[in-house]
Amino acid sequence: MAMSNVSPPPHVAGTAQPSRRLRDLLLIGSLVALVLAGLIGLAVATGWQETIAAVRNLSIIEIIALLALSLVNYGLRGVRWHLFANRLGLPTGLTQDLRHFLGGFAMSVTPGRIGELVRMRWLQRETGWPFDKTAPLVLVDRASDLAAMAILLALALAFSTTGVAGGAPVAILALIAAFIATRPRLMRAAGDASHVASARRFPRLFARVRRAAKSLTAFQGPTVLLAAGALGVIGWLAEGWAFHLLLVWMGAEIGFWTAVGIFVFATLAGGLTGAPGGLGGAEAAMVALLVGSGTPLEIALPATLIIRLTTLWFAIAIGLLVFPLAERHSKMSTP
């Protein structure tokens, strides 16, 4: 006898989401614990006194300066998000777009780039645009970050006296990925190739990819690309400068472009690991590159910890403050 389609009991469906959240929290907690354990282990091996002394060299004014430079990065990239939203045709204002952009930072260390999905959900509630119409905004924003960081890494390789090992291949890969992600024909070809490779499964998903690729034509003008490129480069350069200042204040003898190159390379390397927020990979790359450039380990360790606190975790703190506001505004706009 044929079985009828029966939906799962409410209590079963209701437990699915909490169990996923618990799994995500455990994953993030484990990654953070591993990073801290690694840094603490190295500090113990090096000597607590030297590490603590390096941290004590920093004043409150200097910490505020580091946070201010991070704010420059977030603000400029938020303006870039607004520029892209307008080019796409979204009826959103600057304040609204900044609220979406900053609020998404709350999900920076969640698996699967949930921050972008949250921004798209807010846009859907407030404008009525479905996910497949706002997907190009997320795609071009990610691509712009890759392009900006690749340019900075290339400049660091050109002007740094010590260089960044492995920097050239990473810069080239980042530029290639950014180029493909902003070219409608290439994106559509990549989507079609993936569809064929999947034995033509998920037709709806790949149909959305094709529609999203077609929408990328809105960002092809030289004016918007130059403006977006400048905002991204200046924004990420601000955080690279903060890293250089931090190292100098802690007593390291390191050139400006070497510090910028290490910061950008470590950030990209962390993203390539696939870990949420680049946890683990970014810290490991940063410490290794600093030591390889001649920075003492007792400075490299606290410098890595502090710059991650004033960049990644500072962004998450801002996101957690803005997130409830963005969520409330989006719910008020829902019909």
UniProtKB/TrEMBL annotation:
Membrane topology per the entry is: Multi-pass membrane protein
GO CC annotations on file:
plasma membrane
**Mind telling me which residue stretches traverse the membrane in this protein?**
25-45, 57-76, 146-179, 216-237, 243-266, 278-299, 305-326
This protein's major location comes to membrane
* UniProt keywords, alphabetically: Cell membrane, Membrane, Transmembrane, Transmembrane helix
Q: Subcellular localization, per the record?
A: Cell membrane
Whether RNA-binding counts among this entry's keywords is no
- Designated name of the protein: Flippase-like domain-containing protein
- Species this chain originates from: Boseongicola aestuarii
- Highest lineage ranks of the organism? Bacteria, Pseudomonadati, Pseudomonadota, Alphaproteobacteria, Rhodobacterales
